[in-house]
Amino acid sequence: MLARRSILAFAFAAVSALVAAPFAAAQDGPRIATVNPAKVFNEMQETKDLKQKMEADRKTITDEGQRRGQEVEDAKKRRALFNEGTDDFNKANKEYLEKVIAAQAWQELIKQDLQRQQKSQMKSLFEKIEAATKEVATAKKIDLVVVDQKTEFPDLDTINVDQLRGIINQRTVLFNNGRFDITNDVLAAVDAKYKKK
């Protein structure tokens, strides 16, 4: 009887070890999580504040553009008061051309500056998302974070085959049950740092 019990105990221990082995191996294996940086980017408070600032700046730029456009129109009207070829016309024409060129140069300067600012801000925000992802992953002992940016399929009648192929190729994760998604943790970390400033 004792031998039978010890054989059963040994068999039970062996089966337990075999069953527990895959779970132990899974725990020792790499821990992987996903994050959707586009969602973090769109929902983080700093992005929202930057959008508000850009709207205010856009209104200021629009007002300045209208003012400069009016100066050009006024100079054109003054030029029309004189006969072409006269000294007064030539003087008014020079003033008109100076206003046109100044307005065009200002417009190009604003366009280039806005593009530079947008690129710089986008890069800075992405670097903050990247740093927050690293912090969250380190705190949760995650070894690898994969970008999960699922682009939804539009109405197939509105796109061509190449556009559909592009949408499919953008998908980096085919299945995510959400259990290892740290997007909200990253968003909270980014916003917490921003509020401290």
Give your account of this protein's structure.
With 197 residues, the chain is mainly alpha-helical. It has two domains: 29 residues; 166 residues, Skp domain (Protein Binding, DinI Protein, Chain A, 2-Layer Sandwich). Strands 1-2 form a two-stranded parallel ribbon. Helix 2 packs parallel to helix 6. The longest helix has 53 residues. About 10% of the residues have low confidence.
CATH topology of the largest domain: Protein Binding, DinI Protein, Chain A
**Total strands:** 2
Order of helices and strands: HEHHHEHH
Q: Order of strands across the biggest sheet? A: 1-2
Shape: elongated
Strand content: under 5%
Our measurement of the CA-to-CA distance between the termini, rounded to an integer number of angstroms, reads: 74 Å
Number of helices: 6
| Overall average pLDDT | 86
Examine the secondary-structure arrangement and name the CATH architecture of the largest domain.
2-Layer Sandwich
Largest sheet: 2 strands, parallel
- Summed up, the domain count is 2
CATH class of the largest domain: Alpha Beta
Radius of gyration: 32 Å
By helix and strand content, what is the structural category?
mainly alpha
List its traits:
single chain, 197 residues, mainly alpha, Protein Binding, DinI Protein, Chain A, 2 domains, two-stranded parallel sheet, 6 helices, 2 strands
In short:
With 197 residues, the chain is mainly alpha-helical.
Layout: helices, strands, pairs:
Layout: H1 2-28, E1 32-35, H2 37-43, H3 45-80, H4 87-139, E2 144-147, H5 161-170, H6 183-196
Parallel strand pairs: 1-2
Helix pairs in contact: 2-6, 3-4, 4-6
